[in-house]
Q: What sequence folds into this?
């Protein structure tokens, strides 16, 4: 994949091996291949690091040009550790603002896709095939206190990404009060079973038979503000109460 390549056209051509896109199909595409088609690949030698980037480089062990890109891409910096800057990017907590070296040419890094990439890809596929499909752009993330990566939807179009299960009954007749299902993330993670993380060369997966309803105007979003997040709200309260001391849970 090179900057300017017609990603939608390539995916439509590849889909012919599976009967082409069908009604109800959801296409999951890894963020890296979308970024490559958009030219969101940066040569580190061309980046001029700022004073702040050089300071954070000493704390993290990351190269100053890499840190400079993180500072430019991140919406907020939450903290640092060895080899990682924890950030908020597009409403999501991400390591290094989603900037990655893996599967990027030597001396370069890839940034997350820009703009409304999922919607643009969906519209282009519709133009080429006459079919509306759902589109999810996925990226690998890590979860608190869990080893290993899982898939997460960083963009989506044509699907309702979250299902509200409140009011439904469980097996014993109790009504659910707080349960939502993040369908976009569940499909992204399932698709990454096939995509892999190294040299599998499988940048896209068709989800077929999911029975999810496609929509032009999704009404939900998996993103929530920090004060409503279980982890962020608890950590904030704990830090404000600790005042330098350990606090029992």
A:
């Amino acid at each position: 994949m090179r900057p300017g390549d017609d990603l939608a056209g390539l995916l439509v051509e590849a889909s012919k091996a599976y009967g082409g896109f069908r009604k109800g199909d959801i296409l999951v595409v890894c963020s890296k291949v979308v970024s490559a088609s958009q030219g969101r690949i940066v040569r580190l030698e061309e980046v001029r690091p700022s004073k702040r980037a050089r300071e954070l480089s000493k704390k993290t062990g990351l190269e100053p040009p890499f840190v400079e890109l993180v500072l430019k891409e991140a919406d907020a910096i939450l903290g640092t550790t060895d080899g990682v800057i924890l950030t908020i990017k597009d409403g999501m907590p991400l390591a290094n603002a989603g900037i990655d070296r893996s599967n990027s040419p030597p001396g370069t890094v890839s940034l997350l896709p820009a703009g409304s990439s999922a919607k643009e890809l969906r519209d282009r596929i519709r133009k080429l095939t006459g079919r509306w499909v759902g589109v999810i752009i996925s990226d690998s993330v890590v979860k608190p206190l869990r080893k290993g990566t899982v898939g997460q939807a960083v963009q989506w179009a044509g699907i309702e990404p979250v299902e509200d299960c409140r009011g439904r009954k469980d097996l014993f007749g109790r009504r659910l009060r707080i349960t939502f299902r993040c369908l976009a993330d569940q499909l992204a993670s399932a698709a990454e079973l096939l995509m892999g993380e190294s040299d599998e060369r499988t940048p896209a997966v068709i989800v077929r038979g999911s029975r999810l309803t496609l929509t032009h105007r999704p009404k939900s979003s998996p993103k929530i503000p920090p004060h409503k997040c279980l982890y962020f709200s608890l950590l904030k309260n704990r830090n404000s109460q600790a005042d330098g001391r350990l606090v029992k849970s």
